[in-house]
C-alpha cells in the first residue's frame, strides 16, 4: 500500500520559497519545485481543476530537470533558456519544451499568490477571491471551456476558515501572520521569473 501524502505545511512552503532566491537573484529549481509541491498539497481537493493541471506540469518539469542536469539541486530557472540556442522559432515549435513547462507553473503561481493574498485580507468570499485571482492571471491563457469550468468549480469552494485550518500553523490569526511572511517570498520568485521570461521574449508562449 502506498504511503499517504504528507499533510500541507505552510511553514515548509515558506521555507522553500525563502530558499529559492540567491544573492545573485537567481531562482533555484529544487526549492522552487518543493514549494510548488507544498502549494499543490494545500489546494488539492479544493481547486482540483488547476491543481491537476499544475501537478501534471510539475511532474513534467521534474522529469525535464532530471534529464537535463547532473546536479538539479544546484540548477536555477536559467537552465531552461538554453533551449533558445537553436533559435526562438525552433523553441516555439516545441510543445514539450522546458521553457513552456516552467511558464505554465509560473502563471499558476501568480494565481495562487493572488488567492493567498485574498485569504490574508480577511474577505470570507473564497469563491470571489479565487475567481478574481484567476481572471487576473490564468484566464487569458485558457480556452473558454476551461475558463467556464474553473469559475463553476470556484463556486463550491469552502470557507476562508477551512483554508486557514489546513495550513497547520495553529489559529487563524497565526495562519494569517505566516501568510504575511510567505507571500512576499512567493512574489519575489514570481517577479524574478517574470523578468527572465520577458527578457527572452517568451511570456506569450501558449
State the name of the first-level CATH class: Mainly Alpha
Total E-strand runs: 0
- Computed CA radius of gyration, to the nearest angstrom: 17 Å
By CATH, the topology is Glycolipid transfer protein, GLTP
Catalytic activity: N-(9Z-octadecenoyl)-sphing-4-enine-1-phosphate(in) = N-(9Z-octadecenoyl)-sphing-4-enine-1-phosphate(out); N-(hexadecanoyl)-sphing-4-enine-1-phosphate(in) = N-(hexadecanoyl)-sphing-4-enine-1-phosphate(out)
Protein name: Ceramide-1-phosphate transfer protein
Domain Glycolipid transfer protein: 82-168
GO cellular component, one term: nuclear outer membrane
Note down, in words, how this protein is organized.
This protein has 206 residues and is mainly α. Helices cover 64% and strands 0% of the residues. It has nine helices and no strands. The chain is globular. The chain starts with 9 loop residues before the first helix and ends in a 7-residue tail after the last helix.
List keywords for this structure.
single chain; 206 residues; mainly alpha; Glycolipid transfer protein, GLTP; 9 helices; 0% strand
Structure, briefly:
With 206 residues, this protein is an all-alpha fold.
Give the arrangement of secondary structure elements.
Blueprint (H helix, E strand, L loop, with lengths): L9 H11 L8 H15 L4 H21 L19 H5 L5 H24 L4 H10 L8 H11 L5 H6 L6 H28 L7
Amino acid at each position: 500500500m502506498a504511503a499517504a501524502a504528507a499533510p500541507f505545511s505552510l511553514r515548509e512552503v515558506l521555507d522553500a520559497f525563502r530558499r529559492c532566491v540567491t544573492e545573485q537573484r537567481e531562482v533555484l529549481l529544487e526549492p522552487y519545485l518543493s514549494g510548488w509541491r507544498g502549494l499543490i498539497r494545500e489546494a488539492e481537493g479544493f481547486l482540483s481543476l488547476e491543481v491537476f493541471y499544475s501537478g501534471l506540469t510539475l511532474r513534467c518539469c521534474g522529469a525535464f530537470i532530471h534529464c537535463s542536469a547532473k546536479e538539479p539541486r544546484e540548477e536555477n530557472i536559467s537552465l531552461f533558456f538554453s533551449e533558445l540556442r537553436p533559435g526562438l522559432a525552433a523553441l516555439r515549435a516545441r510543445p514539450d519544451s522546458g521553457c513552456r513547462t516552467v511558464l505554465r507553473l509560473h502563471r499558476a503561481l501568480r494565481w495562487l499568490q493572488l488567492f493567498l493574498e485574498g485569504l490574508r485580507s480577511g474577505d470570507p468570499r473564497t469563491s470571489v477571491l479565487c475567481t478574481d485571482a484567476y481572471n487576473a492571471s490564468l484566464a487569458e491563457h485558457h480556452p473558454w471551456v476551461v475558463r467556464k469550468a474553473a469559475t463553476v468549480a470556484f463556486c463550491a469552494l469552502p470557507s476562508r476558515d477551512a483554508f486557514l485550518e489546513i495550513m497547520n500553523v495553529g489559529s487563524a490569526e497565526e495562519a494569517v501572520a505566516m501568510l504575511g511572511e510567505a507571500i512576499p517570498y512567493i512574489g519575489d520568485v514570481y517577479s524574478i521569473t517574470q523578468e527572465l521570461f520577458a527578457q527572452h521574449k517568451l511570456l506569450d508562449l501558449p
